[in-house]
Amino acid sequence: MTEPSRSSPNTNSAGTQAEISFYEKHKKVYIRDVKGWWNNWRWVLVWVTQIIFYCAPWLEWNGRQAVLLHLVERKFYLFGLVLWPQDVFYLALLLIVSAYALFLFTAIAGRLFCGYACPQTVYTEIFMWVENRIEGDRSARMKLDKGPMTARKFRLKAVKHAVWLLISFWTGFTLVAYFTPVNELIAALPFGFSGWELFWTFFYGGFCYMQAGFLREQVCKYMCPYARFQGVMFDPDTLIITYDPERGEPRGARKKGVDVKNAGLGDCVDCGLCVAVCPTGIDIRKGQQYECIGCGACIDACDPVMDKVGLPRGLIRYTTENALAKHFTSKEVVAHLLRPRIVLYTAILSVITIASVWSLAVRVPLKVDVLRDRSILAREADDGRIENVYNLKIMNTTEEPKRYALSVEGMEGAEIVGDRVVDVASAENHEITVVVRVPPDSGKKGANTIYFDITAVNHEKISVHEKASFLLP
Question: Is 7 helix (H, G, I), strand (E, B) or coil?
Answer without folding.
Answer: strand
